[in-house]
Amino acid sequence: MKVLGLIAGGIILFIASLLVAGANPVTAVSQLITGSVGSASAVSGTIREMTPLLILGVSVFLALKAGLFNIGAEGQFVIGSCFSAATMLAIGGPLGVVVGVLIGAIAGGLWALPAGYVKAFRNGHEVITTIMLNNIAINLTKWLASGPFKGEKAVSASTATLPIQSQLTPLIKVGQFELPQAVVVGILLTLGVGYWLSKTTSGYELRAVGANPTAAEFAGVKTKQVTVKAMFLSGAIAGIAGALQIAQFEHRFYDGSSIGYGFDALGVALLAGGNAFGLFASSFIFGALNKGGTSLMGLGIDKGITTMVLAIVIIIFAAVKYRQKGGQHD
Amino acid sequence: MIDLFKQCVTMSIPLVLIALAGFFSERGGVINIGLEGKTLLACFFSVAFSSKFGPIPGLALTIVATSLVSLIHWLLTQVYRMDHIISGMAINLLAAGATSFFKFKFAADGLEDAAVPPKMLLYALGIVAPAAIWWMSNKTRFGLQHRSAGSDPDKARLLGINPQNIRFSALIGTGVLCALAGSLLIAETPQFTDGMTSGRGYIALAALILGGWRPVNAALACLLFGAASALQIQYNGQYIPSEAWKSLPYLVTLFAIAGFLGRNRTPAGLGKP
């Protein structure tokens, strides 16, 4: 009953917002749909938006399974992007891309490590540490992109553009439709992580730590090590997302190249529920909203409305799925 | 030197207000990473209301509206029992989206001089607030009940205190202080821009943690961070890159959470129902 109230509240807020801003809700919704899945090029755009969200979603999902909120995906993504771009530029060619993705993964993992360590051994909340690490990451990469890694011709804080041999081409290209290689990597990663978590001993241990750390400790799981490992893996996957974003789409690293993908990824992972395969649907929805939001600009409706929709979706879902127990009424 | 001092005050006082807003909610047991969003909404309300109704009614309406937003946070965490982190994130998202969406309609232009929020009053409030809140927290009935709700909600219940009710009042306090902080930011730069709080909510949270969740210490930490950014503005990357200065508060907080700067003082009931 309470949940129905929340859903009704969310819908009313959405429609009222559009009416107050002087837009027609029906045209806005239909534009949102045609702009995101209405044509081959729109679908390609949605897949492009979906790609980083899927991979970052896997990253946050993995941490969530270990009972960790990795709000730091944003920072790990940016660090991964920055160092992989520098590596790809230094080595060049297809080999550069492979090494770049590897460096991106390592950089992202290392960036997440302090949060895992502080959580496991110093009892400090990972949300606070990752928020701090995010802000440091943004400042550090800005400095790197405007100093040591700055491209010769770049005017603002940016690296040089990747040579054409180091840019990933679409895997399939039919007319307006493009399937990027990065999204295929994302799908494989999702399947891999899903398999690892559900079918292997180490994956089971990770889930045990997330579900009940005390019970896991008594069952002989080294919970502290598992926490640190989960955070490192989560960071490494976020770093891969950053590296692929450079190789496939951006072709250079610049200050402000992430538009908050890491924060959206938390929503993606929550919306997937307990199931890794749910990430496909949730990242697609978030990608479609991002893409559709951009096409709303053509109608003079600010993209902010889609951010509001995302927030409302997260609130409704979390109210159903992530509720606390205990206290007075239980 | 005078400039540096002035700069330091300008940078610190909004942080002090936001950190104390965080004190109200976190010491009452509600984790608040939504401070950034609430302050951003307060900036928006301040421009929207002050341009229509003048500075004093504008300030009053901003306080009411921001408190209502803060009560949404109460509703989500206490009635719907949502995870505190997720609800805080959602409020930040909602604030970023809503302010960007509505700004052309309600806050497109800068404020005229006559409509600017009362700057001196807000600074004065920011200066007395830490001491006033220390007094409230340590010397009044409400203050002690408030801290009990954040330290051990189950024991508080045994003593006949309802933590949910205490947190209702606490989150109104959060809303009021965020409203003051947002109005102060608008008084300094009377125009709303997207994301104009630029991470102050997180820096204030950092200061609150560094101050061990105590009002006066948190205010001192804000002063420290404010002084760091004042120095950064004065010397503008002359000796040390400005990015390094900007990272300093976060780095210090990281060490504080890791327990390298004294013992961990996190309220024991933080995030508990």
How are the SSEs placed, and which strands pair?
The complex is a heterodimer of chains A (330) and B (273).
Chain A: H1 2-20, H2 25-37, H3 40-65, H4 73-91, H5 93-121, H6 126-146, E1 170-174, E2 177-180, H7 181-199, H8 201-211, H9 213-218, H10 223-250, H11 261-271, H12 278-296, H13 304-321
Helix pairs in contact in A: 1-13, 2-3, 2-12, 3-7, 3-10, 3-11, 3-12, 4-5, 4-6, 4-10, 4-11, 5-6, 5-10, 7-8, 11-12, 11-13, 12-13
Chain B: H1 2-27, H2 35-53, H3 55-79, H4 84-106, H5 119-139, H6 141-151, H7 153-158, H8 163-188, H9 200-210, H10 215-235, H11 242-257
What keyword list fits this structure?
heterodimer; A: 330 residues; mainly alpha; ABC transporter involved in vitamin B12 uptake, BtuC; 2 domains; 13 helices; 2 strands; 3% strand; globular; B: 273 residues; 0% strand
Determine the mean pLDDT of chain A.
Answer: 89
Number of domains of chain A: 2
Oligomer type:
heterodimer
Which architecture of chain B would the CATH scheme give at its second level?
Answer: Orthogonal Bundle
Query: How would the global form of chain B be characterised?
Result: globular
Fraction of helical residues of chain A: over 70%
Structural account:
Chain A is mainly alpha-helical. Chain A folds into two domains: 42 residues, no CATH class; 261 residues, Orthogonal Bundle (ABC transporter involved in vitamin B12 uptake, BtuC), CATH 1.10.3470. Chain A contains 13 helices and two strands; from the N terminus they run ααααααββααααααα. A two-stranded antiparallel ribbon of chain A has the order 1-2. The model of chain A has no long low-confidence stretch (mean pLDDT 89). Chain B is mainly α. Chain B has a single domain, classed as ABC transporter involved in vitamin B12 uptake, BtuC, CATH 1.10.3470. Chain B is built from eleven helices and no strands. In chain B, helix 1 crosses helix 9 and helix 5 packs antiparallel against helix 10. The longest helix of chain B has 26 residues.
